[in-house]
Every structure is written in structure tokens, then in C-alpha cells.
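Standup notes
- DV: blocked on the single-chain target, sequence here:
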Amino acid sequence: MTAQTPPTPPFRDPRLPFAKRIDDLLVRLTLDERIAFLHQFTPAVERLGIAAFRTGQEALHGVAWMGPATVFPQAVGLGATWNDDLVRRVGEAVSAEARAMRARDDRVGLNVWSPTVNLLRHPLWGRNEEGYSEDPRLTSAIATAYTRGLRGDHPLYWRTAPVLKHWLAHNNETRRDTTSSSVRPRVLHEYDLPAFRATVEAGAVAGVMPAYNLVNGRPNHVSPYLREQLRTWTDQELLVCSDAGAPSNLVDSEHYFDTHEEATAAAVLAGVDSFTDHGTDSSRIVARVQGALVQGLLSEADIDAAVRRQLDVRFRLGEFDPESDPYADAEDFDTPAHRALAQEAAEQAIVLLKNDGLLPLGPDVRVAVVGLLADECKLDWYSGTLIHRSTPLEGLYERFGADRVHFAEGVDRVRLRTTQGTHLSVPATDGAADEVSGAAGALDPALLSGRTDLPPLTADGPGTEFALIDWGEGVLTLRAPDGRYLSVAEDGFVRASADRPGGWVVQETFRLEPSRSHENGHLLKHLGTGRYVTVAADGVKVAAENPAVLFLDFTERGTDAVARAAASADVVLVVAGNDPHINGRETEDRTTLRLPAHQERLLRAARAANPATALVLVSAYPYAVDVAALPAVLWTAHGGQAAGTALARTLAGDVSPAGRLPQTWYAFDDDLPDLLDYDVIGGRQTYLYFEGTPLFPFGHGLSYTSFAYADLRVRRHPGGLTVSFGVTNTGGTTADEVAQLYVRAVAPSVPRPRRELAAHHRVRLAPGASAELSFEVPCSALEFWDVALSRPRLEPGGYELLAGASSEDVRLRTTVELDGEPAVPRPVLEHGLNAADFDEQRGAVLVDRTRTAGDAVSPVDGGTAELVFTACDFGTGVTDVSVEAAGEGVVELSLDGGRSYVALTVASTKGPYDYATLGAAVTADGVRDVHLRLRGPLRLAHVGFSG
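- DV (later): unblocked, structure below
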């Protein structure tokens, strides 16, 4: 008798819808197998032929951490292109390379944790390089373009599955796992949520990753907004992946829950589907989920809901249909097209901030290129390993010829002398020494350790001349003549072993501290370990005791080298900026907008030697620089593998710069709010509300040609407005223009943005050519969040439309009158007042009403806070007021800003969520403003009135 072939299980049948196939597979998986799916590293289920799976592959501007790949400009640079089509093509290239790399190495994941859509609210945020813009509409437009490229255009299968980072209101590294962002409803709905919403609604997003921080006192990993907002924006299943270690933070650092079983259950119920915790060891997460099930904190249905969302991603990626997957045989990797695209993106990201006619450079010019970034092609934490490399110096050599380009790095060159008169030396090595370790290698750089196969430094002989590179704020690196940086491995020895600073904990940074025992002597502190360099019999190492006293014998000052090079040139290019691993990065916010002091000295030295000095800023974030005496200033983010070529072509005029600033460049540190002040409305933050004079405004960027705007027309229709105008290249150079359309409520009843980006378009025009641009402005773009109604409202009245080249360079304007929904007084008799729905506040912070939902208001640090609720309708009259509050303190109520009318004392309650309801007599009628004063460490949730 012939054996029959077993029937194909439904989950393997490509003719069936994904939902039915997932239903079938869920039934076949045991409970233990389903629980195991909740960890980032999901094991294989061999009995069903299901492979292991890993959520998470970094791909912010190229495939990261998995070896060589095409490296595109940083995300903030892609934001500076203001070019949706370009960014979509970058996303396509990145996802194509992810597929090609996975074909060779199954460690490469297809669930990509990109892009970052956190708004660049505060320019001192250490991760500024990862975001696109301070504006939610530009951010969502660029993010949507990138995710569409990552996803691919097949109707059923996805090339990669992008996950948006980091949900929500996350813009500080300082105490990032314990700080709470106080976000009132208007800021939440008008600023933070829209950046995510439009991208999710576009349909190319597989999920989101919650951020480390808390919002209104509640960790993002148990945020009710995941179900109340995110999952209402689309019918598609969305996978929520935790950030690394964040599930454990719920207990360990945040102390939000008492046990890990409680915390894990709360995260699952809130909507977290995949736990990134304890690296590849899934045992602790599995044990916590099992414990939560035993304790009745979770049900099997809760587990199934999370597993379903993960399986949905895997089916969309074609894992179960290899023969039908259109991307299964992808081979596009480091292609000529990808290289050209990297250069195009780098060129389009360059922003010309100022130009008094110095640029573009003439063909016969003699150029001095100087500065710490002049011969660098920097990588950041989320870069791939470079296959190709182009520094500004290399690009200028290529474009102008090495005989016309002179270089001075501007570093101080020193020998380090001990108290015994010997010098620190790098020993000679064999050929193995040519292989140096880097910040980005073939594996996740977080797993890399320093090399130990090279000999450590010694303290004998004439000594090595080191390049002492001062990155500001006392942080420096030391580089040997062969280009290797001093680094410290786990054994504590100091070696010249790294090709660049990098790693999760940077092991290549040091600080000089004055010696108390020897005049002009220094101690050299290693910042990665916090220990000091010492000289031992077996070599130079770092140790907790007996630090070596070192003297700096300068062989050359960087300012002298820069001055010499500048004096002999026609034009000087000072290339300044940051190393993305130093003084501003993930885990570390910046402390100032100022350019580091050493780089300012180099700029002054160049300018003093040659007035024809241009500043080229290559950085992950804005700087505050005095540009008055400089004839030209450019900025670009770290531009990836083609950065130098792109810069040289732009300086030479082969390409007219057309990048635009994606965030405000402030002139002074004093212009900035506190890093933890997330109230962009009350704090008058970003171009939307800032009332000062910026160094350079949002949307700013100059060109080598000129453009004229004309014929602004507006057509109304039920869904909004159609706005059109013409743009003409009135100069002699083919160039791109970024046309920008802004809107402004003329006489709003509540604080509204000074102007707000409604649309943009980057267009290339030949000399004399024109383009007619048309934009759709939906009514939703003109609404604001009405806290009295807890929903958006279009206010009737005048709206100004402004077209131009930046938020401040307005060329055309007109005003339209729109019918909207008139304001109505708050119906306090029906709904009372939710404390968080205030119109104005002073000294208040939003906190969690309960662990699972809602907001309350508390005075900052238990002091005094004032809340104002305008236009409250008491009808024919009320006689009683009640407050729902927890903690202890006093709630005082007054009307129309008058004297305190009633005071209610909140006795100490059992805990922060143990609310008591207190009442008192009050007499009020008509429409009045309610003022509340809160005193002491209490939480006010709600105020009610009755008659």
C-alpha cells in the first residue's frame, strides 16, 4: 500500500488569507511555544518547520551593525533634503540591501527598527541625528517616504517591515529611563501624536517601539495611547516591540510595579508584543509571562493577541511563502545605483546658510581645508560599515587637484612625558597591527570589546608624537601617527588599537586633570572606565590607584598650523563639527549650542590669517556660531560614504545647494527651554511658537541662483483648500528650490502657532524655467485640539496662507475666511472639569491618574500650582463643588481670578491612586473662568459641580 502525502496544513497554503493562516498556526502552537514568541529572539519550532525569528534590525540610514553596507546621510540630513521622493528611494535601497545581506547571513533581520520619528524639539538632545525635523508634518512626510521605500510596493508581501521609534514624547537622554515628559492634551494631539499618525495611516508601518521615558508619570511601555490612539489609526495589525531593557526598567529603575510578573502583564495588556530584554536569553521573560499567567494577571487570549501580531509581520515578509515572495532572491547590494543615490542624498542634504559671494569656488582657486573634520568621514552609532569613503579633503583633492588644496587638521601635537623624564610610546608591531578595530564592525558594536593582541603603550624611549584632539568640554582623544586611537580593553591596558572612537561605552576618550603635586602636570583620566592612566612594569594601563603625572610637551599647536595653511590660500574652508560618538549621542545630551572652544580658536586663527574664510559645519545637530564676520557658512549632517564628494561638488558649483534646515538654529543657549520642558506651547518652543530671533530659521537655505514666486491662488472645497502658485528660476544656474507653504490663524481664541508648515515640494528648474505648484490643505491641518470638547475643532475666522522659501522668507500671502465650529462654553454641569484639560497653568505637571489610564495634575515638587479653565458655563447656577484628589494638600477655587472662594483640604490618602472625593458649597452662575490653586503633594483628577 502506497503511503499518502500528508495534507498541507492551512497555515502553509498561500491561497488563504493571512488571517486564516495565522488562526490555524496559533492552534497548532503549544502554550509554551506561544509564550516563547514574546521574546525578541523567538526560537524555532522544528516540529512545524518554523524557523527562529528575531525582531529588530537597525536600518536608520543604511543596514547597521551587520558589516559592510551602503551608508547614506544621517536621518537629520535626510530630513534636510525636504525631498520625499529621494527619501523613498533611499528606503528602497536600504531594504534591498537588507534582503541581499540576509541571503548571505541569516542574522540580518527584516523587521527593521526604523525610522525614528521623535520630533527634534530640543537641539541639545543627544540623539538629534536620528530624527528628521522639529515639525510634525515634515517629520511624518519624510518618515512616510522612508517606510514606503522600506516596505516595497507589492500589494501583499513586504520587502522589510519597518517599526517606528520611539513612542512617545521622547527628546532627552538625561535620566531617560526615569524622567517623565509632561504633555498636556493640546501638545499631545497637535504636536507629538501627529508625527506618528500620518505615517501609520499611510499603511507602510509594521509597528512602533515605545520609548524609555515616562509620559505624564506613566512609562511608555504601559501607555494607554497604544490602544487608545495607535491601534485606532489603522485596521492593520501593528507589532509593538519594546526598547532594549525597558521591560525590566518598569521594576528596576522606574519602580512603577513591585514585581516583574505585574510589569510584564501590564505591558502585554497595554499592547507590547515583543520583549527586547536580557539579550539573547529569553528565559527570564518566559518565566515572567508564565508567572503572570499563574497569578491570573494574563490569559491565554492575551498571549495569542501578541503572538498574532508578530506572526502577521512574518507572513507579510514572505517567510511562509518562499516561492511566492517577490523579494526572496534580492541581490541588489552596493550597486552603482546605490552609490549614486548615496551621493545624490549627500548633495541634497547640504544647506547653504550664508553666502556673501565667496561661493561657488572658482576653477583656479587655491584652497586651504582645515579643521578636525576636514579629513574625516564619521560614522554614528547606527551606521553600517563603510565600503566606500570620502572625506572633505579627499573630495577637494578629486575636484580641484591635490596641488591646489592644502590641509591642516588643527590638532595639537604632543609627547606625554612622565615625572621620570621618559615618554609614553606606541611599540612597533608586526603586520597584525595594521588591522584596527572600529566602532562599527561585522557585529553589533555593543558586543565588541577592545583588542588585546597588540602590545600596550610603554614609558621609554623618545616617545610617540600624539595628535591630541580636543572635542570640547574637556573630552579628548589621542591618535598615534599611523592613525590608530588610544583605547582601553577589558584588561585595562592602553593600546593604539582603534580606527575611530566608538562603541556603546566609548573606550577612546580621555580627560586631562591638573595634578595637585606637580606644577603644569596632569592626570589623564580614561572616561570609559573612570580610571586614571598609570605606568606599570608591564605597560601603560588604567587603574584605580597610583595615577601617572604627565607633562604635555607640545611639538606643534593646531592654531599655528591652521594659520600657516590659511595664509597661503585664496580661500579657507574650516571644517568643524562633532564626532557622533562624543559630547552628544545616545545616552548623552549636549550641554551647550556653542562650537567647542578649540574649534572656535581654529576658526579665529583662520579668519585672522585670511578673511576669505568659509565655515563648513559637519554635525549631527545645530550650533550657535557668530557668523557676522564670515562670508560663507554651510551645514551638512554627517553625509555617509559620499560626504566628501558631495561637499566638494557643491563648493565648486557643480551642484547648487538646496537643502533646508529641518529645525530652528538658535543664536544663544538662553533661547532654549529646559531640556525636560515638553510644553512647546507654554514654553514657546520650536519655530511654531518661538518669539525670539533665531540664528537661522526653520526651512532656511540659500542657493547659487534666485527664484521668484507669483500668482498665489486659493480654491475652497468641502474638504479644505487647494493652494497653488508659480515658482520661476530667475538666475543663471539650474537648481532645486524647496517651496514651502505655511498657514496661520489670524485671530485665534487660544495660543496657536506663529505659522505652521502645511505643505512643501522640492522642484528642479533650469534658468528661466517655471513650475506651477499645487497643494491640498485639508481642514484637519487648520484645526486645533479643543480641551473643552476633548476633540479637534476648526475655529471660524481668517487664516493666512504664506508661500515662500522658509518659515521667515515669505514671498506671497493671502487670507481666507473659513466657516468653522464656533466656540461654546465648557458644559461643566454635564462633565465637570478634567484637571488635565486646563487652558493655562503655572507650576503644574501632568501625572498618571491610575497605572492604566488617565491623567491628573500635581504641583511641581509638591509646591504650588495654578490652573485656569476659561469660559465655564454654570447655567442658571450651581451650589456645590467636588474635587477628586489623592495625596495631601489644599485645592483652592476662585472665579474670574478673584479672591479664593473655597478651599478643600485633602487629607493624606493611602497611595498616589487612592482618590478621595471632597465637597463644599459654592455659588456660581453664567459663564465664568475657574481658577484652581493646588498646594502640596496632591494629585487632582477631576472637579465637578452640581446645583
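- Follow-up: The mean pLDDT is 95.
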